[in-house]
Amino acid sequence: MSKDQSYGLVIFLVALIVAVGYLAAFFAPWIGLDPRLQAYAIGIPVLLLVLLVLVISAWIGWTMLTTPPPAPLEPEPSTPGAAQGASEKPEDAATH
């Protein structure tokens, strides 16, 4: 078994153990465990998700605050002949 595969096995086993523990805590009142575990099983993930949204929002705000504004676009210089020729119709240009 390679080093990457052993890391994968450890991650898989930890995730499986946490999932079984979470399910046991979530259904604690029905399987004879302390009913307060269910409140923690619901409250902790909700707390973590709210904190995740707030941290991402703060990061976006910080990035917008600290990023300098883009340089303004320079207007293209217009030549007098180009503006006049563009406004003429093709029929008018042929008669001049």
Rg of Cα set: 33 Å
Count of separate DSSP helical elements = 5
Report how far the terminal alpha carbons are from each other.
Answer: 86 Å
- pLDDT average, as an integer? 86
The geometry reads as elongated
| Element order: H for helix, E for strand | HHHHH
Helix content: over 70%
**What is the strand tally?**
0
How many domains make up the coordinates?
1
Approximately what portion of the residues adopt beta-strand conformation? under 5%
| Structural class designation | mainly alpha
Task: Describe the largest sheet.
Answer: none
Low-pLDDT parts are: none
Topology:
Elements: H1 3-26, H2 28-31, H3 36-66, H4 80-87, H5 90-95
Short note summarizing the structure:
The protein is mainly alpha-helical. It has five helices and no strands. About 75% of the residues lie in helices and about 0% in strands.
Q: Can you tell me about this structure?
A:
This protein is mainly α. It has one domain. Helix 1 packs across helix 3. It is elongated. It starts with a helix and ends with a helix.
List keywords for this structure.
mainly alpha, single chain
